[in-house]
Amino acid sequence: AFLALYADVRGWPTNNAHRKAIEAAIKAGSTTSTAVDDFAQTRALLLERKCLVLQGAPGTGKTRLAKELAASLGAEVFFTQFHAETTYADFVWGIRPTLTQDALRYEAQQGPLVQAIVHARNHPDRPTMLIIDEINRANLSNVLGQVFYLFEYQMQDSQTTIQVMPGLALSRLPDNLFVVGTMNTADRSLAVVDFALRRRFAWYTLYPHEVRADAGLHFMTEPFQRMWTIFETHARDEELSLMPGQGYFIVSNKADMKNRLRYELMPLIKEYLSEGLLTTARDDFVNYFRQEIGEEMYR
Q1: pLDDT tens-place string over residues 150-184
Q2: Which of these, 7, 135, 148, 256, could form a disulfide with 251 (CB 3.0-4.6 Å)?
Q3: Residue 236 β-bridge partners
Q4: What is the pLDDT of residues 248-295, one digit of tens each?
Q5: In terms of Cα–Cα distance, which of 51, 107, 111, 37 is closest to 79?
Q6: Residue 278 phi/psi, 5° resolution?
Q7: What digits encode the pLDDT tens for the residues 103-139?
Q8: C-alpha–C-alpha distance, residues 83 and 49, integer Å
Q9: What is the dihedral of CA 223, 224, 225, 231, to 10 degrees?
């Protein structure tokens, strides 16, 4: 596989037979063909650390894996998705105005974190899971506020009490509460998560890999492997996280795969290139879409 990559970079293949032989050699040694039991590893990590972030490119199955983990634990699930305007009042607790019969009133409202904590305390014999989708889209320091302290897993015996909301003060999160966040590593517009928060979570990276599709669907192995070969050949270390995940290649038929290539993957790759990423792979991407869907990336 190494020699095949070297030959491809040097431009040695001069005909289709050469190119197919190189693709076959790269595929034979590709890490995508190695089965990785993400579920078993993340489940063990979650049971040990309680707070876990699943990170990876779009389509690597982060949210799906989070839900599978919850199902395996038999957990009651609380789900929320962060965005740029998410606040402490949205996630933890706050007072919100309500208008009823032309009268303005203010009511206390529990956020997903408090709801999950209360449920976990009221049902100590049943696991509770809070799933935070797109956890890095919000300003986490503002969203977490003082409850930031409670996520420190190495200080679970601390006597320091945090006032989460009136009537609820904690020195530690309930033992039966699990928190799973998901983070898109391909979104270049988002701020980097600070080191203090990273220390409070375990981090697990999901990489694109071949999968067995559910009934009625098909995993398109050849288009996936060809895309992976381009990334493996040209991507720098920091660009490998941009590889579209296996979810893009799970379709009902070949026509659906062509539509996904045409309307999802080709615009994504063009966006990468326009941002100065994977520039050495431009010609290979042009050839890829030309051969897969018969269209030119640039006209």
Answers
A1: 888 776 556 788 888 888 999 889 999 999 999 98
A2: 256
A3: none
A4: 999 999 999 999 999 999 999 999 999 999 999 999 999 999 999 999
A5: 111
A6: 55, 35
A7: 788 788 899 999 999 999 999 999 999 999 999 888 8
A8: 25
A9: 110
